[in-house]
Structure formats: C-alpha cells, structure tokens
Amino acid sequence: MKNPASSLNNKNKFLVLGCGFSGNFFAKTIRKLGYSVLTSSRSESKDPNSFVFNSEKDIIPNKKIFDGVTHILSCIPPDKNGNDPVLGSLKNNLKSLSLEWIGYLSTTGVYGNTKGDWVTEIDKPNPFQKRSHKRLNCEKEWLESGLPVQIFRLPGIYGPGRSTFEAIRTKKIRVIFKKNQVFSRIHVADITNAIIYLLQNKNSLKFHKIINIADDKPCSQIEVIQYCYDLLGLKMPKPILFEEVKGELSPMAQSFWMENRKVSNKLLCETLGYKLIYKDYKAGLKNCFLNS
Ligand SMILES: NC(=O)c1ccc[n+]([C@@H]2O[C@H](COP(=O)([O-])OP(=O)(O)OC[C@H]3O[C@@H](n4cnc5c(N)ncnc54)[C@H](OP(=O)(O)O)[C@@H]3O)[C@@H](O)[C@H]2O)c1
Questions:
Q1: How many angstroms separate the alpha carbon of residue 20 from the centre of ligand 1?
Q2: pLDDT digits (tens, 9 = 90+) for 201-216
Q3: 165, 238, 265, 288 from 180: Cα distances, Å
Q4: Atom of ligand 1 at shortest distance to CA of 22?
Q5: 43: Cβ below 6 Å to ligand 1?
Q6: Strand (E) positions, the chain?
Q7: Which of 260, 192, 158 is CA-nearest to residue 33?
Q8: Does residue 184 have its Cβ closer than 6 Å to ligand 1?
Q9: From the CB of 81, is ligand 1 less than 6 Å away?
Q10: Which of 9, 26, 135, 243 could form an S-S bond across to 192 if both were Cys, CB 3.0 to 4.6 Å?
Q11: pTM for the full model?
Q12: Contact 213, 268 (CB under 8 A)
C-alpha cells in the first residue's frame, strides 16, 4: 500500500490500545509497513512491544510509553458503567502529547434497529440495546475530548481465526432462520486497510469524524453459513425457525437477532475512494478458509 502523497512518515509512532483481534491485525500490518508500534493488553506478555494497560485494575502504562507517540488506535470497548476506559484513565496523558490522530473503533449498534433499512453516518443514532447506549456515550466522550479523534463504526468483525468456520468446527453453530433478517459484516483486513488508506491520504481527503467500515453486501446469516458448509464440502443442518428457538437463546444471542439493518459504506468507498479487499462475505470467507 504505497502512496506518494502519504501523510504518514517513518517518524510516526503508533500506540494500539487493546490489542485484541482487530488491534493485533492493525499493529502487525502497520509494523510491516515500517512504522513503530506499541500495543496494550490487560496482562503481561512476552512481546517486547507490548505493555500492560488495565483500566479495571488501575494499571496505567508508564509515561515513557507515550514518548513521541503521534497516532493512537483505541479498540477498547466501554466499561461496565458505559464510560470509555481510555479517556477515564489516560485523557490527561493523551492531551499532553502532540497527537496527529486518534482512531476509535465503535460499533454500528449505535444506529439501532432500522427494520432492514440502510444506515449512513448522517442518520441520527438510535441505540436500542443497553450496550449500544454505552457505546454512544463513549463516542460522545471522545468527540468532546478535544483530541483529534476519528470514529469508525463497525458491524460484525470476522477474519482468519474468527469466523463461521470456527463455529462449525467447534459445533457451536445453530442454523437459525428469521425472515427478512440481514446483517452487515467486515473483514478485519479491511478495517486495517481502510484506516491506513485514510491516514495515508489525510492531506488530500476531506476529514470525516465518523465513518462506517462495512462490506458491500449485507445478507442473512443463513447465506453465510451455507457458503461455509459448501466450502468445507459438508451438508448444512436443516435451519431452525427463530420463533421456535428464541426462548432458548442467551440474552446476548437474542439481542443479536433483535436488530435488522444494512450498513452503508458509501462515504468510505464512494466519496473517499477506498477499495475494499473483500467486497462481500464470499471473498472474505474464502480468505478465512485458506488461512485457518
Ligand atoms: N467483534 C465484533 O464483531 C465487533 C463489532 C463491532 C465493533 N466491535 C468493537 O470494536 C472494537 C474492537 O473489536 P475486537 O473484536 O477486535 O476486540 P477484542 O478482540 O475483544 O479486543 C478488545 C481489546 O480491549 C482490551 N480491553 C478490554 N477491556 C479493557 C480495559 N478495561 N482496559 C484495558 N484494555 C481493555 C482487551 O484486552 P486483552 O487483550 O487483555 O483481552 C483487548 O485487547 C471493540 O471495541 C469492540 O467492542 C466489535
């Protein structure tokens, strides 16, 4: 991913706060591009580029970690009270730095239930779930922080090591059918690449505070599951009707089925010109199939 007009240079230093699935992919990619990156997790690790940050236990990184940091990506979800763990523990630290950019990974859950309609960044958030109210509160905290934040709203994240294949292999899959129900999703590589694209082209693209990162093709869960079984050469179990099983589902699983929306990527892919690596679940799942 080379760009002659890139606004990134080798003096940039990145911190990835919350190096889980998406954070780890981002850190590895940006490191391969030659940038310096430190990453946080809640427990000690052998990685010399990793440090401990755990807001729940009040474990705050040493000030030295922040020396020379220009870019931060926060992948940490809201705390149990609905506040942002990074801002709660590190806001003053961050404000004392010469930061060029902070990316915050949020969720498209803030849009709530649109009964299958498309949602774009100009739609007023209308969270339905308690956790989405917490998320919207964190977005607000970031936007009001005075820090140079850019928010990325993400639908279901998948990629090698975290996809329907794992659910099939561990036999945790339930093939549930709910009429007219669709979900949006995004491959983890597109989260990273879209962010890098926006950073590299920051000087020439209009800055948007909130951007959806989603693929081109929201669709039903059944389509995705069927495609995975096809790639594995196995027969998909007979679907169960949502109405028949909803009482047996965990509250988390039930909440997953209570929202129905399609996430628009027009701002990112049309206005800003990002080209998805994995345009739809078929392309993305083929990559997972070959890499897991
Ligand atoms: N998964 C999805 O489908 C999805 C969809 C939309 C949005 N999101 C949101 O997007 C972000 C990235 O998602 P992901 O699935 O890549 O996340 P993930 O794998 O769950 O990673 C979350 C990271 O946050 C760290 N963390 C959690 N609570 C913390 C605390 N109180 N203090 C310090 N660190 C803390 C975790 O530390 P450890 O490494 O020690 O565990 C982990 O590194 C998250 O905010 C997530 O809620 C996820």
A1: 6
A2: 999 999 999 999 999 9
A3: 24, 18, 21, 26
A4: 16
A5: yes
A6: 13-17, 36-41, 50-52, 71-74, 101-107, 118-119, 149-154, 156-158, 176-177, 185-187, 210-212, 240-241, 262-263
A7: 192
A8: no
A9: no
A10: 26
A11: 0.97
A12: yes
